[in-house]
Amino acid sequence: MTKISTATISKYAREYEKENDCLLPRRGTIHDIGRSITHKAVICRKVILEGKAIEETAKETNHSNEAVTRYIINFKRIYKYLEKGLSVNDTAFAIKVSKNLVLEYVNLMEDLREQNKSFNIEDIPF
Predict the structure, then answer these.
(1) Rounded CA separation 58/64 (Å)
(2) By residue range, what is the domain housing residue 62?
């Protein structure tokens, strides 16, 4: 209909989200499925780096307080297991999440460290 490829549309959507610091309502983000999920990173950045409250972050990202809390708790749990020396596979098993989810959080942790070298896990709520 528009003669634009899905890859191009996806690229434009990501650029828009980045420029406007928002999330567009896509199936993957609404239903929390698939690899299209980017809201974990946005939510963790807002709470961890910007120091925003759970409620404020939930409003800004169109998520429930419970969902935001779950992402932050998972972030901390995965961080602590990895710090204790557990492998990605063992961490995934212990927390009962997928290996890919643990890797997603690992990448996020690396990004946050680059953005704020002094971020302290103990400063994060929960």
Answers:
(1) 6
(2) 38-123
